[in-house]
Amino acid sequence: MKLHIDFPRLRRDLTELGAIGRTAEGGVSRPSFSEADMRARRWLLDRIAAAGLAARVDAAGNIFARLGGDGPAVMVGSHLDTVPNGGTLDGALGVLAGLECLRRIRELGLPLRHPLELVAFTDEEGRFGGFFGSYALTGALTPGDIPGIKDTQGERIVDVMARHGLDAMQAPSARRDPAEIRAYVELHIEQGPVLEANRVPIGLVEAIVGIHRIGVTFHGRADHAGTTPIPDRKDALLGAADLIRRGRDLVLAEGTPASRLTVGVVQVKPGVANIVPAEVFLTYELREVSAEMLRELAAESRALIAEVAEAAGLTASVETILDIPPVPLADAVKDAILAATKELGCAYMRLSAMAGHDAQVIGRVAPAGMIFVSSKDGRSHSPLEFTADDEIERGANVLLLTLHRLAADGGS
Amino acid sequence: MKLHIDFPRLRRDLTELGAIGRTAEGGVSRPSFSEADMRARRWLLDRIAAAGLAARVDAAGNIFARLGGDGPAVMVGSHLDTVPNGGTLDGALGVLAGLECLRRIRELGLPLRHPLELVAFTDEEGRFGGFFGSYALTGALTPGDIPGIKDTQGERIVDVMARHGLDAMQAPSARRDPAEIRAYVELHIEQGPVLEANRVPIGLVEAIVGIHRIGVTFHGRADHAGTTPIPDRKDALLGAADLIRRGRDLVLAEGTPASRLTVGVVQVKPGVANIVPAEVFLTYELREVSAEMLRELAAESRALIAEVAEAAGLTASVETILDIPPVPLADAVKDAILAATKELGCAYMRLSAMAGHDAQVIGRVAPAGMIFVSSKDGRSHSPLEFTADDEIERGANVLLLTLHRLAADGGS
């Protein structure tokens, strides 16, 4: 009989964690460092201890559990935080399946040539911009950035972490030498429709989408809604409306089928019905698998912002919030995933990851790979997120064989 | 020497009231029933008492001071509340000039044939939708509406008034028999550029603009910003963007030069950068002096909302927030204002009021009139709101002579 995980145990873990931050709509709200996220973190530390593993929390709030001795580790993980009213699997599956793999390998007493290390990264989803933990781990977080990192309510990460006894300014010290990371593997739901449409259970991720997220502020003038004639106004919202429509048209016309544009945040000041908007802030997020196309769409979008601002008599300012180039994944990890699917005799297909993942941050400094399981109707970041138990089990078993292959059989 | 107000005394009152709710930008924030508004109310009650007048607060929170005996009164007033970071004169001028007129007439011992009554109305500016006080006074407020009246933060007027010891459900009992109102006169800054551009100090208001304000909600679907291809989305923000741009084009093409459209509030749910907006609420406010044109623009706008929603794969729901028909002002009051300007030998011009005023609510049940003084650069609802002292003094003297004419000389 092949090596396999204890699925009922993983299922119990998923159900218990899924109850933390549960919303009335049946989703989960665990933004990073929220009360629910803190409860999830304490719960995970308990589960790690119960598995007989040593837990560690670094200066960025990343949680680790390690199995085996010294030397470069084969890492496995994902994140505990969620978007507001998100699903129970996005992030949680990768952490808990990783924990189950370490637990199983430990209880079977399988010999390891390289240590295994579980990680749950801080703020993948972006309450504070995203990837705080994986940036810190890879040295991409600079101390100068930290005081300016805020959530959309204006709360500083420095103040929020301090309330939980953590010093955000120390987060850069969480950096690990890339040579300590032999490989990083992340199991995740696809969050898209491809696997389901092709009736294939496992996705072998070839590359992870790049994200170029900017904050755009249009500056106009507050005028009285009655007394100022329409042509005399400097309506900041008009620039925003034109950008939302024309940005979409631009990306559809100039991009590839994999190009994405999302405006998800709009804030209007002063925000009352009888005053012409003086200032509008919005987030403008581009995604692409081709680095060249992403750069091109970003440049054309900036030209469009200037154009719509001028046409409406406004000025516009642009700040870069996220700029993550697309990342091809490592052949060594992809080969191990491929061998695992063959050993299990399950079908797979190659695809790109259109969502951002910690794997793409780690993948810039160390060999990284991702395994996808299918998402019902492609739904994610929603209470409707769902993956059937047998697909979760199959994905976790591919992860187990992949990790075992990388940690037990690997060379050097 | 002609009858005139004590300008230094009025100036002191304006300065003192302008310090209540002062903002860092030099504006004033006194939304109705805010802490600043409550302080302004207490200050006014003190000033009324200091003038030797009897104050009264009705069930809607309207503040009154009366001079003279029984019988239908000549009313004068405006409002104390302001928009967030508004100016020091919008509303305050009408209340304080009215108070000064009563004080002056009282101290000169001028005989009155009809009583004078000062009023400061609750929530003209619209934290709770606008005109709460004048609606209550004229019987336009129905008990069934009150529990649903909320501010943009979702705070119910019932709860907010209760914190100040007032029972909002009793507000309809503030209704006065229209026969008790012999006339209503309101002095106000123009809030527009017409008087200044024409170098005329006094505006004789012919009619007050009608306002049709609706709340529009576009309903789409929350999708992941990366995994859902753009053509497959139901992006609620796209419908909103198209309505903002095309609504403006519609009003410019089909309306008159006096037509206004303002979208001042936009709320996006869930409102995070990496989720396609599932729901967008916005306010859509039309203004017109012609009742027929206002009805026409409202009907065409509703058709446009349905059209942009369908084109973006959304559904839309529409609620009416305000529906105030344009109001022509009363000849008897206009004649009195005209006579006052002649007595003072000052130039005047006839114009329309493009902002909403309590005078238009009162004007539906009783004879109402308005006097305008000029606004520098037409600015209002802004810290930049400004009218020179000599213009304020002239306007207050026109008000004094108008009130004296209506209360002392009037027939019947």
How would you portray this structure in words?
Two copies of one chain form a homodimer. In chain A, 35% of the residues lie in helices and 22% in strands. In chain A, the strands form two sheets. In chain A, strands 1, 2, 3, 4, 5, 6, 12, 13 and 14 form a nine-stranded mixed beta sheet that branches. By secondary structure, chain A is an alpha/beta fold. Chain A has eleven helices and 14 strands. Chain A has helices at residues 7-18, 35-50, 92-107, 132-138, 157-163, 194-198, 236-254, 291-311, 331-344, 358-362, 389-409; strands at 54-57, 63-67, 73-79, 116-121, 181-189, 202-208, 210-219, 260-262, 266-269, 279-288, 315-324, 327-328, 348-353, 368-373. In chain A, strand 3 (73-79), helix 3 (92-107) and strand 4 form a beta-alpha-beta unit. Chain A folds into two domains: 7-209 and 326-408, Aminopeptidase (3-Layer(aba) Sandwich); 210-324, Alpha-Beta Plaits (2-Layer Sandwich).
What would you call the structural class of chain A?
Answer: alpha/beta
Level of helix content of chain A? 25-40%
Shape of chain A: globular
Measured by DSSP, the beta-strand proportion of chain A falls in: 15-25%
SSE order and pairing:
The structure is a homodimer of 412-residue chains.
Chain A: H1 7-18, H2 35-50, E1 54-57, E2 63-67, E3 73-79, H3 92-107, E4 116-121, H4 132-138, H5 157-163, E5 181-189, H6 194-198, E6 202-208, E7 210-219, H7 236-254, E8 260-262, E9 266-269, E10 279-288, H8 291-311, E11 315-324, E12 327-328, H9 331-344, E13 348-353, H10 358-362, E14 368-373, H11 389-409
Parallel strand pairs in A: 3-4, 3-5, 5-14, 6-13
Antiparallel strand pairs in A: 1-2, 2-4, 6-12, 6-14, 7-10, 7-11, 8-10, 9-10
Helix pairs in contact in A: 1-3, 3-11, 7-8, 9-11
